[in-house]
Write a structure and sequence with these properties.
By secondary structure, the protein is mainly alpha-helical. It has 3 helices and 2 strands. The protein has a two-stranded antiparallel ribbon. The chain is flat.
C-alpha cells in the first residue's frame, strides 16, 4: 500500500485498516484518522485533534437523538 500517505501509517499499521477491521462508522473512523495523523500531516496537531473531537461530539449527538423517546 505505497499509495497511502506516510502520515496515515504508524508502526506498520495503516489507520484505514483499523477502521475497516473494527467496523467503525463515518464519525468514529474520521476521529481515528484525525488522531492518527495529528502532528504528522502538519505540525499543528491541535487542528487535527479539534477535528477528531468534532467527529466524536457529532457521534455522541446522534446517539442521544436515537435514544430519545
Amino acid at each position: 500500500m505505497s499509495s497511502v500517505p506516510q502520515y496515515y501509517r504508524r508502526g506498520g499499521i495503516v489507520c484505514w485498516d483499523v477502521i475497516e477491521a473494527w467496523g467503525l462508522n463515518y464519525n468514529l473512523g474520521n476521529a481515528l484518522k484525525y488522531i492518527s495523523r495529528a502532528g504528522h500531516k502538519t505540525p499543528d496537531a491541535r487542528a487535527d485533534l479539534a477535528k477528531a473531537i468534532a467527529c466524536i461530539e457529532r457521534e455522541m449527538q446522534l446517539l442521544d437523538e436515537r435514544a430519545e423517546p
